[in-house]
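Hi support team,

I submitted a single chain yesterday and got back a structure, but I'm not sure I'm reading the token output correctly. Could someone confirm the output below corresponds to the sequence I sent? I've pasted both exactly as they appear in my results page.

Thanks,
R.
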Amino acid sequence: MISYKAHISNYGWMPPVFDNMIAGTVGASIPLEAFQIDDLGEAGVGVQAFAHVQDLGWSSGNILGEPVGSTGLGKHIEAVKIGLIGENADKFDIWYRLHLANFGWLEWSKNGELNGTVGGNVQAEAIQIQFHAKSDNITPQVDSDFTYKDLTPQNPPVSNAPNILDRARQDLGYITGTSEDSVFGRRIAGEMAGDWCCYAVVCWALDAGLNVPVTGYVPTMKSWAEENGRWTGNPQPGYFVLFDFNGNGTPDHIGIVEEVHASDCVTSIEGNTDQGSGIGVYRVYRDYGILGYVNPF
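Hi R., thanks for writing in. Yes, this is the structure output for that exact sequence:
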């Protein structure tokens, strides 16, 4: 019998529950921040689980006995996907569903399918999980409209929208002098929002009539691109270029490709960078630190 537990805001880890029981809360508006599957009760079967976390995007894969999501950050889970691994994985099904604020219980997903929402900042509050042998022919169903939705705001078509590069060039020379505040961060987040390279790219894309995630967190842009077939190693003018200057596989800076010199060498327009005159928007030649590219078109 599967054993799992929930980590909820203000309370921490709750006691373990078992097959199909509710982990978390319902009706109390308390965010689900993490969950952990401790045991499946079957040899030769393991779990690989992911969580889409508020502002952070998709987590890495987790296995039995490891938390999925985040703790201590005050960030709620928005979506999950749980799959089975191991030599006997093909003999079993794992079913799961989230309880979301404003939506209630979702329909069941299974074996790595998505469950929840992204792009709408909708908090999950509880999770249910079932684990059965395929030979049992169990298919749980509820009266729910969906298992997963992308709620990323879609912008109305813009008549004669300027090219994204033309829009970005208009801000060349903008200098704020700080990484903490910019017109771009205030426009998207409504406040002094901190590191603003991604906010700048999002503003330029929106002004060009493109539908991209409205986010200031570069890894979220990468996750969106991977999930939608937009992640590539072949740059084109107007593509987003993501950098990993720390060398840890997680993007930490973003710009827009203006000119392609090679697959790993471009001239880009970037915000929140310093080229000697203070932190601002610059045209930069980059032949290092490039992690990949996003096609926003």
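A quick pointer for reading it: Residues 197-207 form the longest helix (11 residues). Let us know if anything else looks off.

Best,
Support desk
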